[in-house]
Amino acid sequence: MFDSSYKSTIGVDFEMECFEILGIPYNLQIWDTAGQERFKSIAQSYYRNSHVVVVVFDLSKSETLSNTRKWFLDAMHTCGDMLPYVFLVGTKKDLLGGFAYKNAELSAVNVAKSINAEYWPVSSKNGENIDSLFARIAVLTFDDCVKNELLRPREIYIGSNMISGKANRSDSKKNSKCTKC
């Protein structure tokens, strides 16, 4: 939900978003790090082993797009061995129209290509593309967890529902960075 009284992030903010994918509850841990230089050392500790990097800029302020490469490089430098999915997100899409939007989008698409990112224009105010963006992130990371066997279903049915194997939840959680709701 859009909150007109929202204040910019100071330092780091944390949110948890729950999804259900293929009937399995799945959490995204979202760490919002401030882009200001004075918070750079704090933010870098949250980049380590990230599965996704979302670089956000304000579509209505072209100077913010020029900062995205630096923020991207800062995040990638401290991500460790992970090769995270990268998203370039332009906010406040609702403030632009016509030529101004086309021009901002063209610049953003070029930056996204240069950092190998998916580009997503969004509007928090009217909700445009917000749910789709987070659903995309959730599905990609869920798929990776399944491929890497980090997310195990509680019950596995073989042949019929009369034979089932129950995964040991504590073992699964110890080795997993993917969590269940």
TrEMBL record:
<dbReference type="InterPro" id="IPR005225">
    <property type="entry name" value="Small_GTP-bd"/>
</dbReference>
<keyword id="KW-0547">Nucleotide-binding</keyword>
<dbReference type="InterPro" id="IPR027417">
    <property type="entry name" value="P-loop_NTPase"/>
</dbReference>
<dbReference type="Pfam" id="PF00071">
    <property type="entry name" value="Ras"/>
</dbReference>
<dbReference type="InterPro" id="IPR001806">
    <property type="entry name" value="Small_GTPase"/>
</dbReference>
<dbReference type="GO" id="GO:0005525">
    <property type="term" value="F:GTP binding"/>
</dbReference>
<protein>
    <recommendedName>
        <fullName>Ras-related protein Rab-34</fullName>
    </recommendedName>
</protein>
<dbReference type="InterPro" id="IPR050227">
    <property type="entry name" value="Rab"/>
</dbReference>
<keyword id="KW-0342">GTP-binding</keyword>
